[in-house]
Specification:
Blueprint: H1 3-20, E1 31-33, E2 48-50, E3 65-67, E4 82-84, E5 99-101, E6 116-118, E7 133-135, E8 150-152, E9 167-169, E10 184-186, E11 201-203, E12 218-220, E13 235-237, E14 252-254, E15 269-271, E16 286-288, E17 303-305, E18 320-322, E19 337-339, E20 354-356, E21 371-373, E22 388-390, E23 405-407, E24 422-424, E25 439-441, E26 456-458, E27 473-475, E28 488-491, E29 500-503, E30 512-515, E31 524-528, E32 533-535, E33 540-541, H2 557-566, E34 570-574, E35 577-584, H3 604-660, H4 666-669
Helix pairs in contact: 2-3
Length: 670
């Protein structure tokens, strides 16, 4: 027969003797069996004492059960206690509602109440502690005044003396705890070394095993927070999570191997297998995902969310990686933000980069101050810096180019080494590879430029076909669409005819301006579509073709003269140029014929036309007067001739008359 069965048989036999053998039942329904059992009882009732000196000193205690030599030996007034095992509840005097099962369990209890001890030496030293539960050999063995403790497992909470509200489940769980309060340890050796630490939770084999004075720690999993000594406010869930932490505080590790190597780092959050696994002294890091920030050693204030996010970071600070493989290769780069699968994946030492979108800034290594927003934007960038790409595939091919800005899908897509370019619009500057210092705003504006520089385009497909031209300005939809040369200005809204066209040059005499045309004569500085032009010599020619005019009619001389007489020439200076003196007219004062609608300006040719008409009319009058004078001169000449003829005839007659005079009568004629 086994020992267990033998014990059971003996126990049943003793009960039989107590109840059925005459002379063994005391007054008031007490039962005793054994030397001096219930020896001092006076008025206590419903007590059962089986074993030598069990309940020996009980006087008034009621409803106690003591089975085992020396069990409840010192009880006097305690009630409703149950002691099974030699010396169980041996020192109890007035404590009540205690249950002790096991040799020397609750041995020292005096006034403590509502305790449960199951196992040899369980709650052995308890004196006044209450509401404790101890299951297992030596569980809560040293507890004296601690209350509301629960221990299950060999030597669990063995050293506790005054600590309260502790729970230890598992072999040696909370074994060394003395004054620590509100700790929970579930698992072999969990919180084993804890002495005074409080409000800790250790669940799993060896969880928080080395913690001594740290508070507010939570370790769930095999070896979780294994080596923590004084660190506070840590949470570890997962096998080996925060395993090496000693004094680091306020860390959270969820997942196998998460924050495994952390020793003094504080304020870290790690969720996922091997996340922040190598972290030693780094602080205020957040890692969520498989192997996120796995190799971080001393880097601080980093956030990695996603499998392998910031995986290789060792000393970089202030980085944010969200998405699988985001910032995976970063080692010492700081203040980078990578959001999206593979964002900033190959970055090693680049700083102050921002990548939003899958594979954005994917190949960046040491480039800094870049911003990429959109899938595969700035994908190939390695060392380029200060670039901004907004849109899927924007600046896709850039490697070393810098100071570029691309906004729009495929904007600056082919640019590899270009610099100082600004591209806004879908496929704007799309084919540029080495081009620099270009500004392109609008759908497919400057789309074909490959090597040209210092071009500016504003408008849909402005400068569309230009490939290598430089120094061009295209403003308006389709402005300069087919222009392939350099140093040209186009302002307009169509492919064919620009509103403004110009040839630009540093040499003043080489600049040309066209209005409504896209070519300027070699000899002109300004050419207008209607034929007006300014020569390079500075002579302005107005457009005056009959084909440009309507309602053509003669200007009356009287109207012209009347207008001319009303014109009042004056001298004046312009308000904004007082140093120059001018002669002219005041627009508000001129007669209606030469006044413009706004009466703020004058057309010089209008006045010239009036003057011309007046002068022409005067010329006609002068010619008429000349003709009249010429006619009078003829008449005078004829009169003079007639006088001469008459005089000649007179002289002839006088001569003839002289001949006819008699000689004797000569005195008569005298």
């Amino acid at each position: 027969m086994s020992a267990h069965k033998k014990t059971t048989v003996i126990f049943v036999a003793l009960l039989y003797v107590s109840f059925y053998v005459p002379g063994t039942m005391a007054q008031s329904a007490n039962t005793s069996y054994g030397t001096s059992a219930l020896d001092s009882n006076i008025s206590g009732s419903f007590n059962t004492a089986i074993g030598r000196v069990s309940l020996m000193y009980n006087t008034t205690g009621n409803a106690n059960t003591a089975v085992g030599a020396g069990s409840l030996n010192s009880n006097t007034e305690g009630n409703y206690n149950n002691a099974f095992g030699s010396a169980a509840l041996n020192k109890n005097t007035t404590g009540s509602f205690n249950v002790a099962l096991g040799s020397s369990s609750l041995f020292s209890n005096t006034t403590g109440y509502a305790n449960v001890a199951l196992g040899n030496l369980a709650l052995f030293s308890n004196t006044t502690g209450f509401n404790n539960t101890a299951v297992g050999r030596k569980t809560l063995q040293s507890n004296s005044v601690g209350s509301y403790n629960t221990s299950i497992g060999h030597e669990a909470l063995m050293s506790n003396t005054t600590g309260n509200f502790n729970v230890g489940v598992g072999r040696s769980a909370l074994q060394s705890n003395t004054t620590g309060t509100a700790n929970t340890a579930v698992g072999n050796d969990s919180l084993r070394e804890n002495v005074s630490g409080s409000s800790n939770v250790g669940i799993g084999d060896s969880a928080l095993q080395s913690n001594r004075s740290g508070d507010l720690n939570t370790g769930v999993g095999y070896f979780a927070l294994l080596n923590n000594t004084s660190g506070k406010g840590n949470t570890a869930s997962g096998a080996l999570a925060l395993q090496r932490n000693t004094t680091g505080s306020d860390n959270t590790a969820i997942g196998a191997y998460s924050l495994e190597s952390n020793t003094v780092g504080r304020g870290n959050t790690s969720v996922g297998k091997s996340s922040l696994a190598q972290n030693d002294t780094g602080a205020i890091n957040t890692a969520i995902g498989l192997s996120a920030l796995s190799q971080n050693l001393s880097g601080s204030s980093n956030t990695g969310v996603g499998a392998f996010a910031l995986n290789s970071n060792s000393s970089g600070d202030f980085n944010l990686g969200v998405g699988a493989y985001a910032l995976r290769s970063n080692t010492a780069g700081k203040a980078n933000t990578g959001i999206g699968a593979g964002a900033l994946r190959d970055n090693t030492r680049g700083e102050y980069n921002n990548a939003l979108g899958s594979a954005s800034l994917f190949n960046n290594k040491t480039g800094s101050n870049n911003s990429a927003f959109g899938s595969s934007s700035l994908y190939a960038n390695t060392t380029g810096y200060a670039n901004v790409a907004l849109g899927n595939l924007a600046m896709l091919s850039n490697t070393t180019g810098y100071n570029n800005t691309a906004v729009g899908r495929k904007a600056l897509e082919a640019s590899a080494t270009g610099k100082n370019n600004t591209s806004v619009g879908h496929e704007s500057l799309n084919k540029s590879r080495k081009a620099s210092n270009n500004t392109s705003i609008g759908y497919q504006s400057l789309m074909s430029v490959t090597t040209g520089s210092q071009n500016t385009a504003l408008g849909i497909r402005a400068g569309f076909e230009n490939t290598s031209g430089s120094g061009n300005i295209f403003i308006g939809p389709y402005a300069g669409y087919s222009e392939k040369r350099s140093s040209r200005l186009y302002i307009g809204n169509n492919k064919a005819v620009p509103a403004i066209y110009a040839v630009m040059s540093r040499n003043a005499e080489s600049n040309k301006l066209g209005i409504g045309i896209n070519e300027v004569s070699e000899n002109d500085a300004i050419t207008v579509w209607n034929g007006a032009h300014l020569t390079k010599a500075g002579v302005w020619t107005n457009a005056s073709s009959r084909f440009l005019k309507q309602n053509i009619r003669d200007l009356k001389a009287s109207e012209a003269l009347d207008t001319l007489l009303q014109l009042e020439p004056v001298q004046y200076e312009y308000i904004n140029s007082p140093e120059e003196n001018y002669v002219g007219f005041i627009a508000e004062d001129v007669p209606e014929m030469v006044a413009l609608n706004d009466r703020k300006s004058l057309a010089a040719m209008d006045i010239v036309a009036v003057l011309t008409k007046v002068v022409k009319e005067q010329h006609l009058q002068q010619e008429e007067q000349a003709r009249r004078l010429e006619s009078k001169d003829s008449q005078i000449a004829e009169l003079i001739k007639s006088v001469k003829d008459l005089t000649s005839k007179q002289n002839y007659l006088l001569g003839e008359l002289e001949k006819l005079k008699p000689a004797s009568d000569s005195r008569f004629f005298e």
